[in-house]
Design brief:
Distance between the termini: 29 Å
Structural class: alpha+beta
Largest sheet: 6 strands, antiparallel
Radius of gyration: 30 Å
Helix content: 40-55%
Oligomer: single chain
């Protein structure tokens, strides 16, 4: 006979409201997450769209050409003004201009307006008049076609040419083609062409290195450095965290000392991350790294090899930072395994080691993996300790290359979190860097979100495979 337990009767107002409060909390959390992702996606991915350029004629007769960015009320609340990105820093001394809407006489969107990304002066917005190359002269659409085709070629194969450009004020600029990295005529593009350019620019953002003091280019070195550091950190923290949890739960006598150790481990999880950075700087960089330099790299001193920040010390510091997460998650998984499983294995003749390896650890694997991946997710977003133990604004050499020993643990590296911080607060043009800040933040949030979702799905898969509740 099967017995069905009746649900408890809800007799009080609090009991009636409690399920609704729980559901509202979950809904609010999901709404906040969706709002965050929407905000980052709108401002970040929108940066790569070929925005329309406007030619604004003021009542004074002056002409302004640029991309409209946003509007804000005037200081005296007498109207509204619009911010335009005008580029041409070498001509005007500034790339931005506020225009009061009441001063605008006419707004047009001519198809002949172009936008060049160039070095070292940043974007040029205006018109392309003439291209001169090898005694030939190209004008109009022929000049556009020549520049577009030349930019598709590798840097060493591009023809030597000069572009004659005209700004909104009629100033003429002679620009070498070698300094141009991107050419666009957004007003003349169809919707399909804009989508193709948008996808291409997103790919370039993910696959290229930064330019113009991190206000242009891509974040590939930062992605690579973040992944390398997280992988190395995982290799270090996983065995130590799992072994420590096994000792605390399966081997050590459960007494006051063990309880104090558990309290200490949980308190370490709440220590500010910058404290770990100070510890890593003093112990790993100056202590161990300085000793390695004095023993094996004495001929390079006073220039340090391991006695300065690098990939190895950053990975060790973050391994120490995330160690409590792995220990706590693994120990919780071990504690959920019924004692009957252990006793049954021993009764069948298994040794204690065989019982741990063949029975307990496989059943606790979901909890171990969850702890490791949560540690990875936390390490991917940490910035404060890395500023002290190895991260760099721009790393000229990657930690992995074709030179022996191929993996260079002593080199500095770039990190998405620090790249985000540096772009937002230390760029030459903070206003221009804001869209890249949103795009980098979206990328970092997606990486952390994917890692956490991986932990959930992997745990669910292992539960179903092993048929136990971890």
């Amino acid at each position: 006979m099967r017995w069905h337990r009746k649900p408890p009767r809800l007799t009080s107002v609090g009991s009636l409201l409690w399920p609704w409060l729980c559901a509202a909390s979950v809904a609010l959390s999901l709404l906040m997450l969706a709002t965050l992702l929407t905000l980052l996606a709108a401002h970040g991915l929108g940066h790569f769209w070929p925005a329309t350029l406007e030619q604004v004629t003021l009542r004074s007769g002056e002409t302004v050409i640029g991309q409209p960015v946003r509007e804000a009320p005037l200081p005296n609340a007498a109207g509204t003004e619009r911010l335009y990105f005008t580029g041409n820093r070498d001509i005007d001394g500034d790339s931005w201009r506020w225009v009061a809407l009441g001063d605008i006489a006419d707004i047009a969107e001519p198809n002949d307006l172009i936008r060049l990304e160039r070095a070292p002066w940043g974007d040029f917005i205006g018109r392309l008049d003439v291209v001169e190359s090898a005694g030939q002269r190209f004008e109009g659409e022929a000049a556009w076609a020549f520049v577009a085709q030349a930019l598709r070629l590798p840097d060493g194969q591009r023809p030597i040419a000069r572009l004659q450009l005209t700004s909104a004020q009629g100033d003429t600029v002679s620009q070498p083609l070698a300094g141009v990295t991107r050419f666009q005529a957004p007003n003349a593009m169809s919707w399909g062409q804009k989508v193709a350019v948008w996808c291409k620019r997103i790919w370039q953002f993910l696959s290229e290195g930064p330019r113009s003091a991190n206000t242009g280019g891509g974040v590939w070195p930062a992605i690579f450095g973040t992944v390398m550091m997280v992988m190395l950190m995982s290799v270090i923290v996983t065995p130590f965290g799992v072994l420590a949890a096994i000792y605390l739960n399966e081997i050590a006598h459960q007494n006051r000392l063990t309880r104090l150790v558990r309290i200490g481990v949980r308190n370490l999880a709440g220590v500010p991350s910058i404290v770990y950075g100070v510890f890593g700087l003093g112990v790993f960089v100056y202590g161990i790294g300085g000793s390695i330099d004095s023993w094996f790299f004495d001929d390079t001193l006073p220039s340090p090899t391991f006695g300065t920040g690098g990939l190895l010390w950053a990975s060790l510091t973050l391994a120490l930072l995330t160690l409590p997460v792995v220990i706590v998650a693994t120990e919780e998984g071990l504690a959920r395994i019924p004692d009957a499983q252990r006793e049954g294995a021993v009764a069948l003749g298994a040794t204690r080691l065989e019982m741990l390896v063949r029975v307990v650890l496989p059943m606790a694997t979901p909890a171990m993996l969850t702890g490791v991946i949560l540690a990875v997710a936390r390490a991917a977003g940490e910035v404060a300790p890395l500023m002290l133990v190895g991260v760099a604004k721009l790393a000229p050499q990657m930690p992995v290359d074709g030179e022996f020993p191929y993996l260079h643990l002593e080199r500095k590296f770039m990190h998405l979190g620090y790249h985000l911080f540096d772009t937002a607060f230390h760029g030459e043009d903070v206003q221009a860097a804001i869209p890249l800040v949103f795009a980098t933040a979206l990328l970092l949030v997606l990486i952390v979100l994917v890692l956490n979702l991986t932990a959930i799905f992997l745990r669910h898969y292992l539960r179903r495979q092993r048929g136990n509740e971890c």
